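Problem statement: downstream parser choked on a complex file, so we are re-checking the raw output for the flavin-adenine dinucleotide run. The parser issue turned out to be on our end (a line-ending mismatch), but while we're here, posting the original submission so the record is complete.
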Amino acid sequence: MPSSDGTVHIIGAGIAGLAAAVRLTDGGRTVVVHEATGQAGGRCRSYYDHTTGMVIDNGTHLLLSGNHAALNYLKTIGAETMLEGPADAEFQFIDLAGGARWTVRFNNGLFPWWIFDKSRRVPQTRPRDYLPLARLLWASGDQPLEKLMTCSGPLYDRLLEPLFLAALNVVPPEGSGKLAGQIVRETLVLGGKACRPLIAPDGIGTAFIDPAVAYLKDRGVVIDMHRPLHALGFAADRVSHLDFGKDVVTLGEHDSVILAVPSYAAAGFMPGLQVPSSFRSIVNAHYRIDPPAGQPRMIGVVNGTAEWVFALPGRVAVTVSDAGDLLEMPRTEVAQVIWRDVAAIMGLPETLPPWQLVRERRATFAATPEENAKRPGAQTDWRNLVLAGDWTATGLPATIEGAVRSGNRAADLVGDGNVNRAAA
Ligand SMILES: Cc1cc2nc3c(=O)[nH]c(=O)nc-3n(C[C@H](O)[C@H](O)[C@H](O)COP(=O)(O)OP(=O)(O)OC[C@H]3O[C@@H](n4cnc5c(N)ncnc54)[C@H](O)[C@@H]3O)c2cc1C
Protein backbone atom coordinates (compact mmCIF):
# COMPACT_ATOMS: atom_id res chain seq x y z
CA MET A 1 0.00 0.00 0.00
CA PRO A 2 1.40 3.42 -0.90
CA SER A 3 2.11 5.54 2.18
CA SER A 4 0.19 8.78 2.70
CA ASP A 5 3.40 10.55 1.60
CA GLY A 6 2.84 9.15 -1.86
CA THR A 7 5.03 6.90 -3.96
CA VAL A 8 8.45 7.94 -5.19
CA HIS A 9 9.13 6.71 -8.71
CA ILE A 10 12.84 6.45 -9.40
CA ILE A 11 13.77 6.25 -13.06
CA GLY A 12 17.11 4.49 -13.52
CA ALA A 13 18.76 1.85 -11.33
CA GLY A 14 22.33 3.12 -11.60
CA ILE A 15 24.23 4.04 -8.45
CA ALA A 16 22.38 7.37 -8.13
CA GLY A 17 18.95 5.75 -8.41
CA LEU A 18 19.88 2.92 -6.04
CA ALA A 19 21.36 5.32 -3.47
CA ALA A 20 18.18 7.42 -3.58
CA ALA A 21 16.04 4.30 -3.20
CA VAL A 22 18.06 3.04 -0.22
CA ARG A 23 17.83 6.39 1.56
CA LEU A 24 14.11 6.79 0.95
CA THR A 25 13.37 3.23 2.02
CA ASP A 26 15.28 3.87 5.23
CA GLY A 27 13.00 6.86 5.75
CA GLY A 28 9.93 4.64 5.37
CA ARG A 29 8.88 5.89 1.95
CA THR A 30 7.19 3.78 -0.72
CA VAL A 31 9.54 3.47 -3.67
CA VAL A 32 9.29 1.96 -7.15
CA VAL A 33 12.39 1.79 -9.36
CA HIS A 34 12.00 1.64 -13.14
CA GLU A 35 15.07 0.49 -15.08
CA ALA A 36 15.34 0.40 -18.88
CA THR A 37 17.70 -2.57 -19.11
CA GLY A 38 17.62 -6.05 -17.61
CA GLN A 39 20.32 -5.28 -15.05
CA ALA A 40 20.80 -2.72 -12.29
CA GLY A 41 24.07 -0.79 -12.04
CA GLY A 42 24.18 1.31 -15.21
CA ARG A 43 27.79 2.31 -15.79
CA CYS A 44 28.90 0.35 -12.72
CA ARG A 45 28.12 -3.29 -13.43
CA SER A 46 29.59 -6.78 -13.54
CA TYR A 47 28.53 -9.54 -15.89
CA TYR A 48 29.48 -13.03 -16.99
CA ASP A 49 31.62 -12.91 -20.11
CA HIS A 50 31.39 -16.03 -22.26
CA THR A 51 34.63 -15.38 -24.14
CA THR A 52 36.83 -15.48 -21.06
CA GLY A 53 34.49 -17.53 -18.87
CA MET A 54 34.83 -14.93 -16.12
CA VAL A 55 32.65 -12.42 -14.36
CA ILE A 56 34.11 -9.07 -15.33
CA ASP A 57 33.40 -5.44 -14.51
CA ASN A 58 32.63 -2.91 -17.21
CA GLY A 59 35.46 -1.05 -15.48
CA THR A 60 37.52 -1.65 -12.36
CA HIS A 61 36.12 1.06 -10.14
CA LEU A 62 38.51 2.75 -7.73
CA LEU A 63 37.34 4.57 -4.64
CA LEU A 64 39.38 6.52 -2.12
CA SER A 65 38.82 6.10 1.60
CA GLY A 66 37.71 9.76 1.72
CA ASN A 67 34.64 8.91 -0.39
CA HIS A 68 32.44 9.01 2.68
CA ALA A 69 29.04 8.96 0.96
CA ALA A 70 29.93 5.89 -1.11
CA LEU A 71 31.31 4.13 1.96
CA ASN A 72 28.20 4.94 4.00
CA TYR A 73 26.05 3.62 1.18
CA LEU A 74 28.02 0.35 1.26
CA LYS A 75 27.69 0.20 5.04
CA THR A 76 23.93 0.66 4.85
CA ILE A 77 23.51 -2.15 2.33
CA GLY A 78 25.91 -4.37 4.31
CA ALA A 79 28.66 -4.46 1.70
CA GLU A 80 31.52 -2.44 3.17
CA THR A 81 33.65 -5.60 3.51
CA MET A 82 33.52 -6.09 -0.26
CA LEU A 83 36.09 -3.31 -0.73
CA GLU A 84 39.75 -3.92 -0.15
CA GLY A 85 42.81 -1.70 -0.01
CA PRO A 86 46.22 -1.33 1.58
CA ALA A 87 46.39 -0.48 5.28
CA ASP A 88 48.15 2.77 4.40
CA ALA A 89 47.62 5.26 1.61
CA GLU A 90 50.21 4.22 -0.91
CA PHE A 91 50.32 4.14 -4.68
CA GLN A 92 52.84 2.12 -6.66
CA PHE A 93 53.99 3.25 -10.10
CA ILE A 94 56.17 2.04 -12.94
CA ASP A 95 57.66 4.04 -15.80
CA LEU A 96 57.71 1.76 -18.82
CA ALA A 97 60.15 4.07 -20.62
CA GLY A 98 63.00 3.20 -18.26
CA GLY A 99 61.55 0.59 -15.93
CA ALA A 100 61.82 2.79 -12.82
CA ARG A 101 59.41 1.86 -10.02
CA TRP A 102 58.40 4.01 -7.08
CA THR A 103 55.79 4.18 -4.34
CA VAL A 104 54.16 7.37 -3.10
CA ARG A 105 53.21 7.03 0.57
CA PHE A 106 50.90 9.65 2.03
CA ASN A 107 51.08 10.01 5.79
CA ASN A 108 48.07 9.98 8.08
CA GLY A 109 47.34 13.27 9.81
CA LEU A 110 46.71 16.65 8.33
CA PHE A 111 50.31 17.87 7.95
CA PRO A 112 51.71 16.47 4.70
CA TRP A 113 55.14 15.44 5.91
CA TRP A 114 55.32 12.84 3.13
CA ILE A 115 56.24 15.77 0.90
CA PHE A 116 59.35 16.38 3.03
CA ASP A 117 60.40 12.73 3.07
CA LYS A 118 62.41 11.62 0.05
CA SER A 119 61.42 8.01 0.55
CA ARG A 120 57.70 8.88 0.45
CA ARG A 121 57.39 11.61 -2.15
CA VAL A 122 57.75 11.29 -5.92
CA PRO A 123 61.38 10.67 -6.97
CA GLN A 124 63.16 13.70 -8.50
CA THR A 125 60.80 16.18 -6.87
CA ARG A 126 61.42 18.83 -4.19
CA PRO A 127 58.94 19.97 -1.53
CA ARG A 128 58.36 23.29 -3.29
CA ASP A 129 57.18 21.46 -6.43
CA TYR A 130 54.02 20.57 -4.48
CA LEU A 131 52.96 24.20 -3.90
CA PRO A 132 50.77 24.40 -7.03
CA LEU A 133 48.45 21.88 -5.38
CA ALA A 134 47.64 24.54 -2.79
CA ARG A 135 46.88 26.98 -5.60
CA LEU A 136 44.15 24.63 -6.83
CA LEU A 137 42.39 25.04 -3.51
CA TRP A 138 42.17 28.80 -3.68
CA ALA A 139 41.62 29.35 -7.39
CA SER A 140 38.52 31.42 -8.08
CA GLY A 141 36.10 30.51 -10.84
CA ASP A 142 36.81 27.50 -12.99
CA GLN A 143 39.79 27.36 -15.31
CA PRO A 144 41.56 24.55 -17.14
CA LEU A 145 44.27 22.95 -15.03
CA GLU A 146 46.96 24.11 -17.44
CA LYS A 147 46.17 27.70 -16.42
CA LEU A 148 46.63 26.86 -12.74
CA MET A 149 49.69 24.65 -12.72
CA THR A 150 52.55 23.47 -14.89
CA CYS A 151 51.46 20.31 -16.59
CA SER A 152 54.95 18.84 -17.00
CA GLY A 153 57.90 17.81 -14.87
CA PRO A 154 58.45 14.83 -12.56
CA LEU A 155 55.64 15.60 -10.08
CA TYR A 156 53.11 16.01 -12.87
CA ASP A 157 54.30 13.06 -14.97
CA ARG A 158 54.75 10.67 -12.07
CA LEU A 159 51.79 11.46 -9.82
CA LEU A 160 49.44 14.28 -10.77
CA GLU A 161 48.79 13.28 -14.36
CA PRO A 162 47.88 9.66 -13.51
CA LEU A 163 45.73 10.72 -10.55
CA PHE A 164 43.90 13.60 -12.23
CA LEU A 165 43.41 11.64 -15.46
CA ALA A 166 41.81 8.80 -13.48
CA ALA A 167 39.65 11.14 -11.40
CA LEU A 168 38.55 13.55 -14.15
CA ASN A 169 38.64 11.19 -17.15
CA VAL A 170 39.93 13.98 -19.34
CA VAL A 171 43.52 14.86 -20.24
CA PRO A 172 44.43 16.93 -17.18
CA PRO A 173 45.57 20.17 -18.92
CA GLU A 174 41.98 20.55 -20.24
CA GLY A 175 40.42 19.45 -16.96
CA SER A 176 38.37 21.59 -14.62
CA GLY A 177 40.58 23.24 -11.99
CA LYS A 178 37.53 23.51 -9.74
CA LEU A 179 36.83 19.77 -9.83
CA ALA A 180 40.51 18.93 -9.41
CA GLY A 181 40.64 21.32 -6.45
CA GLN A 182 37.67 19.59 -4.86
CA ILE A 183 39.36 16.21 -5.21
CA VAL A 184 42.48 17.57 -3.52
CA ARG A 185 40.32 19.14 -0.77
CA GLU A 186 38.49 15.86 -0.05
CA THR A 187 41.54 13.59 -0.22
CA LEU A 188 45.12 14.93 -0.09
CA VAL A 189 44.26 17.81 2.26
CA LEU A 190 42.72 15.37 4.72
CA GLY A 191 45.83 13.19 4.78
CA GLY A 192 46.45 9.52 4.15
CA LYS A 193 43.30 8.39 5.96
CA ALA A 194 41.27 9.83 3.08
CA CYS A 195 43.59 8.58 0.32
CA ARG A 196 43.66 4.80 0.69
CA PRO A 197 42.79 3.28 -2.69
CA LEU A 198 39.90 0.82 -2.47
CA ILE A 199 38.69 -1.66 -5.06
CA ALA A 200 36.19 -4.53 -5.15
CA PRO A 201 38.39 -7.54 -6.01
CA ASP A 202 35.37 -9.84 -6.41
CA GLY A 203 33.67 -7.40 -8.77
CA ILE A 204 31.75 -4.15 -8.48
CA GLY A 205 28.43 -5.95 -8.84
CA THR A 206 28.98 -7.86 -5.59
CA ALA A 207 29.83 -4.63 -3.77
CA PHE A 208 27.73 -1.79 -5.12
CA ILE A 209 24.79 -3.37 -6.91
CA ASP A 210 23.65 -6.85 -5.82
CA PRO A 211 23.56 -6.01 -2.08
CA ALA A 212 21.61 -2.82 -2.82
CA VAL A 213 19.06 -4.68 -4.92
CA ALA A 214 18.71 -7.35 -2.19
CA TYR A 215 18.41 -4.65 0.50
CA LEU A 216 15.65 -2.88 -1.42
CA LYS A 217 13.74 -6.05 -2.29
CA ASP A 218 13.87 -7.16 1.37
CA ARG A 219 12.13 -3.92 2.22
CA GLY A 220 9.40 -4.36 -0.35
CA VAL A 221 10.76 -2.04 -3.03
CA VAL A 222 9.63 -2.97 -6.52
CA ILE A 223 12.48 -2.84 -9.05
CA ASP A 224 10.95 -3.08 -12.50
CA MET A 225 13.47 -4.15 -15.13
CA HIS A 226 13.09 -3.77 -18.90
CA ARG A 227 10.94 -0.76 -18.23
CA PRO A 228 12.30 2.24 -20.13
CA LEU A 229 10.56 5.53 -19.51
CA HIS A 230 9.40 6.93 -22.86
CA ALA A 231 8.20 10.34 -21.73
CA LEU A 232 7.25 12.47 -18.76
CA GLY A 233 3.81 14.07 -18.86
CA PHE A 234 3.54 17.54 -17.36
CA ALA A 235 0.49 19.40 -16.07
CA ALA A 236 0.90 22.90 -14.70
CA ASP A 237 3.81 22.81 -12.23
CA ARG A 238 4.13 19.06 -11.77
CA VAL A 239 4.75 15.76 -13.49
CA SER A 240 1.34 14.24 -14.03
CA HIS A 241 2.20 10.88 -15.59
CA LEU A 242 4.96 8.51 -16.59
CA ASP A 243 4.70 7.10 -20.09
CA PHE A 244 6.34 3.68 -20.39
CA GLY A 245 5.05 3.04 -23.91
CA LYS A 246 3.10 -0.10 -23.05
CA ASP A 247 1.38 1.61 -20.13
CA VAL A 248 1.02 4.98 -18.49
CA VAL A 249 1.30 5.60 -14.75
CA THR A 250 -0.80 8.50 -13.54
CA LEU A 251 0.78 10.20 -10.55
CA GLY A 252 -1.22 11.04 -7.45
CA GLU A 253 -1.04 14.43 -5.79
CA HIS A 254 1.67 13.25 -3.37
CA ASP A 255 3.70 11.12 -5.77
CA SER A 256 7.07 12.29 -6.91
CA VAL A 257 9.76 11.37 -9.43
CA ILE A 258 13.52 11.12 -9.22
CA LEU A 259 14.99 11.12 -12.70
CA ALA A 260 18.29 9.23 -12.30
CA VAL A 261 19.13 8.57 -15.94
CA PRO A 262 22.23 9.71 -17.88
CA SER A 263 22.37 13.38 -18.87
CA TYR A 264 21.51 12.82 -22.53
CA ALA A 265 18.43 10.80 -21.55
CA ALA A 266 17.30 13.42 -19.02
CA ALA A 267 17.62 16.17 -21.65
CA GLY A 268 15.29 14.16 -23.89
CA PHE A 269 12.62 14.07 -21.19
CA MET A 270 12.92 17.72 -20.18
CA PRO A 271 13.15 20.10 -23.13
CA GLY A 272 15.25 23.12 -22.29
CA LEU A 273 17.30 21.32 -19.62
CA GLN A 274 20.95 22.23 -19.99
CA VAL A 275 23.26 19.27 -19.36
CA PRO A 276 26.86 18.28 -20.09
CA SER A 277 26.90 17.15 -23.69
CA SER A 278 30.51 16.19 -24.31
CA PHE A 279 31.72 12.80 -23.08
CA ARG A 280 34.92 10.84 -22.64
CA SER A 281 35.46 7.12 -23.00
CA ILE A 282 37.10 4.57 -20.72
CA VAL A 283 38.54 1.31 -22.03
CA ASN A 284 39.00 -1.71 -19.81
CA ALA A 285 40.90 -4.82 -20.83
CA HIS A 286 40.44 -8.10 -18.95
CA TYR A 287 42.80 -11.06 -19.19
CA ARG A 288 42.16 -14.53 -17.78
CA ILE A 289 45.43 -15.37 -16.11
CA ASP A 290 46.72 -15.87 -12.58
CA PRO A 291 48.88 -12.85 -11.83
CA PRO A 292 52.36 -13.97 -10.69
CA ALA A 293 52.82 -14.00 -6.91
CA GLY A 294 53.97 -10.75 -5.37
CA GLN A 295 52.37 -8.43 -7.92
CA PRO A 296 50.92 -5.25 -6.41
CA ARG A 297 47.12 -5.28 -6.37
CA MET A 298 47.22 -2.05 -8.33
CA ILE A 299 49.99 -0.19 -10.15
CA GLY A 300 49.96 3.11 -12.04
CA VAL A 301 51.75 3.09 -15.38
CA VAL A 302 53.67 6.00 -16.87
CA ASN A 303 54.68 5.99 -20.55
CA GLY A 304 52.48 3.04 -21.47
CA THR A 305 49.09 2.50 -23.09
CA ALA A 306 47.89 0.82 -19.89
CA GLU A 307 47.29 3.37 -17.13
CA TRP A 308 46.25 1.30 -14.10
CA VAL A 309 46.87 -2.41 -13.89
CA PHE A 310 44.98 -4.50 -11.32
CA ALA A 311 46.15 -7.98 -10.29
CA LEU A 312 42.95 -9.76 -9.25
CA PRO A 313 42.05 -13.36 -8.36
CA GLY A 314 42.47 -15.32 -11.62
CA ARG A 315 42.57 -12.23 -13.79
CA VAL A 316 44.33 -9.02 -14.67
CA ALA A 317 42.30 -5.91 -15.45
CA VAL A 318 43.62 -2.73 -17.04
CA THR A 319 42.03 0.69 -17.19
CA VAL A 320 42.68 3.40 -19.78
CA SER A 321 40.89 6.71 -19.25
CA ASP A 322 39.96 9.29 -21.89
CA ALA A 323 40.81 6.52 -24.32
CA GLY A 324 39.56 8.07 -27.56
CA ASP A 325 42.58 6.75 -29.51
CA LEU A 326 41.66 3.16 -28.67
CA LEU A 327 38.04 3.35 -29.77
CA GLU A 328 38.61 3.02 -33.48
CA MET A 329 41.52 0.55 -33.34
CA PRO A 330 40.74 -3.13 -34.03
CA ARG A 331 39.84 -4.84 -30.75
CA THR A 332 42.57 -7.49 -30.94
CA GLU A 333 45.18 -4.82 -31.55
CA VAL A 334 44.02 -2.90 -28.46
CA ALA A 335 44.08 -6.06 -26.36
CA GLN A 336 47.59 -6.86 -27.62
CA VAL A 337 49.03 -3.37 -27.12
CA ILE A 338 47.73 -3.25 -23.55
CA TRP A 339 48.85 -6.81 -22.86
CA ARG A 340 52.42 -5.94 -23.93
CA ASP A 341 52.50 -3.40 -21.09
CA VAL A 342 51.14 -5.94 -18.61
CA ALA A 343 53.65 -8.56 -19.77
CA ALA A 344 56.52 -6.09 -19.27
CA ILE A 345 55.29 -5.15 -15.79
CA MET A 346 54.64 -8.69 -14.59
CA GLY A 347 57.42 -10.49 -16.47
CA LEU A 348 54.97 -12.59 -18.51
CA PRO A 349 55.13 -13.81 -22.15
CA GLU A 350 53.69 -11.48 -24.79
CA THR A 351 51.28 -14.17 -26.03
CA LEU A 352 47.74 -13.01 -25.38
CA PRO A 353 45.82 -14.97 -22.74
CA PRO A 354 41.99 -15.16 -23.14
CA TRP A 355 40.83 -11.57 -23.11
CA GLN A 356 37.85 -9.24 -23.29
CA LEU A 357 37.67 -5.55 -23.98
CA VAL A 358 34.99 -3.16 -22.72
CA ARG A 359 34.92 0.18 -24.50
CA GLU A 360 32.53 2.58 -22.81
CA ARG A 361 32.23 5.47 -25.24
CA ARG A 362 30.24 7.77 -22.97
CA ALA A 363 31.81 6.67 -19.69
CA THR A 364 31.63 10.14 -18.12
CA PHE A 365 30.93 13.70 -19.12
CA ALA A 366 34.10 15.57 -20.05
CA ALA A 367 35.22 17.20 -16.81
CA THR A 368 36.25 20.49 -18.44
CA PRO A 369 35.25 23.92 -17.10
CA GLU A 370 32.75 24.33 -19.98
CA GLU A 371 30.96 21.05 -19.33
CA ASN A 372 31.12 21.44 -15.56
CA ALA A 373 29.30 24.79 -15.94
CA LYS A 374 26.39 23.03 -17.68
CA ARG A 375 25.53 20.74 -14.75
CA PRO A 376 22.08 21.43 -13.33
CA GLY A 377 21.16 21.21 -9.66
CA ALA A 378 18.79 18.56 -8.32
CA GLN A 379 15.75 20.82 -8.23
CA THR A 380 13.69 21.46 -11.35
CA ASP A 381 10.86 23.77 -12.37
CA TRP A 382 8.39 20.99 -11.56
CA ARG A 383 7.54 20.60 -7.93
CA ASN A 384 7.48 16.81 -7.82
CA LEU A 385 10.49 16.18 -10.08
CA VAL A 386 14.10 15.94 -8.88
CA LEU A 387 17.26 15.07 -10.82
CA ALA A 388 20.01 12.68 -9.76
CA GLY A 389 23.11 11.35 -11.47
CA ASP A 390 26.86 11.86 -11.52
CA TRP A 391 26.37 14.61 -14.12
CA THR A 392 24.26 16.85 -11.86
CA ALA A 393 25.95 19.64 -9.93
CA THR A 394 27.61 17.58 -7.21
CA GLY A 395 30.85 19.57 -7.16
CA LEU A 396 32.70 16.33 -7.98
CA PRO A 397 33.69 14.70 -11.25
CA ALA A 398 31.58 11.81 -12.57
CA THR A 399 32.31 9.24 -9.90
CA ILE A 400 30.53 6.77 -7.65
CA GLU A 401 30.94 9.25 -4.81
CA GLY A 402 29.22 11.96 -6.86
CA ALA A 403 26.47 9.59 -7.98
CA VAL A 404 25.74 8.49 -4.40
CA ARG A 405 25.68 12.08 -3.16
CA SER A 406 23.32 13.07 -5.94
CA GLY A 407 21.01 10.18 -5.04
CA ASN A 408 21.12 11.13 -1.36
CA ARG A 409 20.35 14.75 -2.18
CA ALA A 410 17.42 13.81 -4.39
CA ALA A 411 16.07 11.53 -1.65
CA ASP A 412 16.41 14.29 0.93
CA LEU A 413 14.52 16.74 -1.26
CA VAL A 414 11.71 14.25 -1.77
CA GLY A 415 11.83 13.18 1.86
CA ASP A 416 11.32 16.77 2.98
CA GLY A 417 7.96 16.60 1.23
CA ASN A 418 9.02 19.88 -0.26
CA VAL A 419 10.64 18.70 -3.44
CA ASN A 420 11.22 21.95 -5.23
CA ARG A 421 10.97 24.86 -2.89
CA ALA A 422 11.83 27.28 -5.66
CA ALA A 423 8.87 26.14 -7.72
CA ALA A 424 6.41 25.51 -4.90
C1 LIG B 1 34.39 2.11 -17.47
C2 LIG B 1 34.08 3.02 -16.32
C3 LIG B 1 34.99 3.14 -15.28
C4 LIG B 1 34.70 3.96 -14.19
N1 LIG B 1 35.60 4.03 -13.17
C5 LIG B 1 35.26 4.70 -12.05
C6 LIG B 1 36.12 4.66 -10.91
O1 LIG B 1 37.19 4.05 -10.93
N2 LIG B 1 35.71 5.31 -9.78
C7 LIG B 1 34.52 6.00 -9.73
O2 LIG B 1 34.20 6.53 -8.67
N3 LIG B 1 33.72 6.09 -10.82
C8 LIG B 1 34.05 5.46 -11.96
N4 LIG B 1 33.22 5.50 -13.05
C9 LIG B 1 32.04 6.37 -13.01
C10 LIG B 1 30.85 5.69 -12.33
O3 LIG B 1 30.61 4.42 -12.88
C11 LIG B 1 29.63 6.57 -12.55
O4 LIG B 1 29.89 7.86 -12.02
C12 LIG B 1 28.36 6.04 -11.89
O5 LIG B 1 28.19 4.67 -12.12
C13 LIG B 1 27.17 6.82 -12.46
O6 LIG B 1 25.98 6.39 -11.87
P1 LIG B 1 24.62 7.09 -12.26
O7 LIG B 1 23.55 6.41 -11.48
O8 LIG B 1 24.75 8.56 -12.12
O9 LIG B 1 24.40 6.86 -13.82
P2 LIG B 1 24.20 5.51 -14.68
O10 LIG B 1 25.10 4.46 -14.18
O11 LIG B 1 24.36 5.92 -16.10
O12 LIG B 1 22.70 5.06 -14.39
C14 LIG B 1 21.61 5.48 -15.13
C15 LIG B 1 20.61 4.35 -15.22
O13 LIG B 1 19.44 4.82 -15.91
C16 LIG B 1 18.99 3.82 -16.80
N5 LIG B 1 18.18 4.45 -17.83
C17 LIG B 1 18.60 5.20 -18.89
N6 LIG B 1 17.53 5.61 -19.59
C18 LIG B 1 16.42 5.14 -18.96
C19 LIG B 1 15.01 5.22 -19.21
N7 LIG B 1 14.54 5.88 -20.26
N8 LIG B 1 14.16 4.60 -18.37
C20 LIG B 1 14.62 3.91 -17.29
N9 LIG B 1 15.95 3.80 -17.02
C21 LIG B 1 16.83 4.40 -17.84
C22 LIG B 1 20.30 3.21 -17.31
O14 LIG B 1 20.08 1.95 -17.90
C23 LIG B 1 21.12 3.16 -16.03
O15 LIG B 1 20.90 1.96 -15.32
C24 LIG B 1 33.50 4.72 -14.17
C25 LIG B 1 32.59 4.62 -15.23
C26 LIG B 1 32.88 3.78 -16.29
C27 LIG B 1 31.89 3.68 -17.42
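For whoever reads this later: The longest strand covers residues 355-365.
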